[in-house]
Write a structure and sequence with these properties.
With 584 residues, the protein is an alpha/beta fold. Helix content is 36%, strand content 18%. The chain contains 18 helices and 19 strands. The strands form four sheets. A seven-stranded mixed β-sheet has the order 13-12-9-8-7-6-15. Strands 5-4-3-2-1-14 form a six-stranded mixed β-sheet. A four-stranded parallel β-sheet has the order 18-17-16-19, with helices on both faces. Helix 8 links the parallel strand 16 and strand 17. Helix 5 packs parallel to helix 6, helix 7 packs across helix 8 and helix 10 crosses helix 11.
Length: 584
């Protein structure tokens, strides 16, 4: 057995920031060198950020990525780090002529091994995902090699993300190539309970590859996507050797005793038509490795509520900071949605950067106004009150609105007020709508839907309540003041646009509504399947009709962090104009 010290860098990247991302690679590589690492790895497309979407189709961006890679290799050598092999994800292009139906310029989701000032080896992702939020067939052409590098006498097979998630390809090819370690670089977006799925996947692939398998993952956020990290190393039997924390940048260093590379290691074509591309970087093993210094730490995964909350905070923080915004503005109604949104914002960017505005009308209850003020006091955010009553009276005097138009006018006046303050002072507005309301259209266009980002747009209302209780519980356990007033959690939800209004006047109880929505929206079940689960037929028919009729509203809602299997965004694409309805 040969000793190999592996340094896995679970870090964030910003799309398009080639210089900043390269700086992070150099910084972490230096840290790994100081810890005596023999091989360093970074996540998928770390140099360009991920996903780059249509930037992949711009030849100027592809060439900038390729040039940045070469410059990074030279810089590592210039700074005395050249002898340390570094695996880096980037955007490349194929030298082969693309076939009809493939993207022009043949861009590739690629990774490279940098060593002694040069690109020692490069390869492209073999399996391209084309489901959910992924459109990689639109952007990339697949790779056709099985890359293997020999480091300190150990053969290391390399893969990129989806190469593990799909059957065949590089996993069985790693076994055929005689690899002692399978290293996969990844940028796998977060969704609820994916950490369990990911662990079982890595275990299964390690058993199939017949070797230790290391899965290094990205953390951070990019527009609607959140990356939770959760870097994992398992042995050939699937036993966990090391696991990194979720939603945190870290360098996971691990000493591994691995099989020596065979003198007559296989070459040629292996599984799925992949051709072994083998490069020897250092054939000699570590001399007298001594006792294990880095046995590997195993950080347990977060519980479900903390995991979701941390994902929302991570997504919001990344959106604000990466887009250069300084502060956020929230309309505070005293209700649960704006209260949770405010708590998330304070945790993400600090209370000093969060501004709240209470905008009462004649229908606003005293307790709601008090709850908004109490939320501000508890969290320390900036707070003011702007009554919309004079504006409302002026509009009503001119237009004489009634019914729903009168109710929605109040919401639109609040939206206009928030945008006016935002324009004047420079904050971005956060939209507080939840997934339940977005699903059934229980929101007002150009009213409570205004904003630059929707932190809870993928959170069902029942989960909103659960997260609020969890956040308060954690604060109490720490000896802190719970941020969300208890009254905001316990009182019946209401838009307060008419006397005595509550949400259940218009909608089923949220526990029932959310259960139906989870089946119809997240799982794409039809009416008959939902009825077979025991739901009331009239309720199901009504909810499905509301969802179908609200597509035009959802298309105009701001982006927000995806935490579910199917959020309202890139991974749910339905026509606005459609006469198809579930029967009933």
């Amino acid at each position: 057995m040969h000793r190999l010290r592996l340094a896995l860098n679970q870090i964030d990247a910003t799309v398009g920031d080639l210089h900043g991302n390269a700086d992070a690679v150099v910084h972490r590589t230096r840290e790994a060198a100081e810890r005596g690492a023999h091989l360093v790895a970074f996540p998928e497309m770390i140099l360009t950020g991920y996903p780059v979407e249509d930037l992949a189709l711009r030849s100027s961006f592809v060439e900038a990525s390729r040039s940045a890679l070469v410059a990074l290799a030279a810089r590592l050598a210039d700074e005395g780090l050249g002898d340390l092999p570094v695996v880096v994800g980037y955007l490349d292009r194929s030298s082969a002529q693309p076939r009809y139906g493939q993207p022009a310029g043949a861009p590739q989701n690629a990774a490279a091994v940098l060593h002694r000032g040069e690109v020692a080896l490069s390869f492209a992702k073999h399996h391209l995902p084309n489901y959910g939020v992924f459109d990689e067939f639109r952007y990339f052409v697949p790779g056709d090699t099985m890359p293997v590098i020999r480091v300190r006498g150990v053969d290391v097979a390399l893969a990129i993300c989806e190469d593990l998630w799909q059957e065949g390809g590089r996993v069985p090819a790693a076994r055929a190539a005689g690899a002692g370690l399978l290293l996969s670089v990844n940028a796998s977006p977060y969704e609820r309970e994916k950490d369990d799925t990911r662990l079982e996947l890595v275990r299964k692939r390690a058993q199939e590859a017949g070797c230790v398998t290391a899965y290094v993952a990205m953390t951070g956020g990019q527009d609607e996507l959140v990356f939770d990290g959760d870097t994992i190393v398992v042995d050939a039997s699937g036993a966990v050797l090391a696991r990194a924390p979720q939603f945190a940048e870290t360098q996971l260093v691990l000493d591994l005793d691995l099989p020596a590379a065979a003198a007559d290691a296989p070459n040629g074509v292996v599984d799925d038509g992949l051709r072994i591309d083998r490069v020897v970087l250092s054939g000699e093993p570590v001399a007298e490795p001594g006792p294990v210094e880095y046995p590997g730490t195993i950080v347990p995964p977060l519980d479900d509520d903390e995991e979701v909350y941390r994902a929302l905070v991570t997504g919001l923080r990344a959106y604000v900071r990466k887009n250069g915004f300084r502060s956020v503005l929230i309309g505070l109604s005293g209700g649960i949605d704006s209260a949770l949104t405010a708590a998330l914002a304070v945790d993400a960017i600090g209370a000093e950067h969060v501004y709240g505005v209470s905008m009462p009308s004649k229908y606003s209850s005293e307790h709601s106004k008090d709850d908004a003020a109490e939320l501000a006091r508890r969290t320390g955010l900036h707070y003011r009150t702007v009554s919309i009553a004079p504006m409302f009276d002026a509009y009503m005097g001119q237009l004489g609105l009634t019914g729903l138009a009168e109710e929605n006018l109040q919401s639109r006046l609040r939206g206009t007020t928030l945008m006016a303050v935002s324009n004047q002072e420079g904050q971005i507005v956060l939209a507080p709508g939840n997934k339940s309301e977005l699903a059934v259209g229980y929101s007002t266009l150009y009213g409570d839907s205004v904003g630059a980002y929707g932190p809870i747009k993928d959170v069902y209302k029942s989960t909103v309540f659960r997260l609020a209780r969890w956040r308060n519980k954690v604060a109490a356990e720490r000896g802190e003041t719970p941020p969300i007033p208890e009254n905001s959690v316990t009182k019946p939800p209401s838009a307060e646009l008419r006397p005595g209004q509550v949400d259940t006047d218009s909608l089923p109880d949220y526990d029932v509504l959310d259960a139906i929505l989870a089946r119809y929206v997240d799982r794409d079940e039809g009416r008959e399947e939902i009825l077979a689960a025991g739901f009331d037929a009239d309720t199901v028919t009504r909810v499905l009709r509301l969802v179908d009729n609200a597509e035009y509203k959802r298309r105009q809602y701001p982006p927000g962090p995806k935490i579910s299997a199917k959020g309202f965004g890139k991974d749910r694409r339905l026509p606005i104009t459609s006469r198809w309805r579930e029967s009933g």
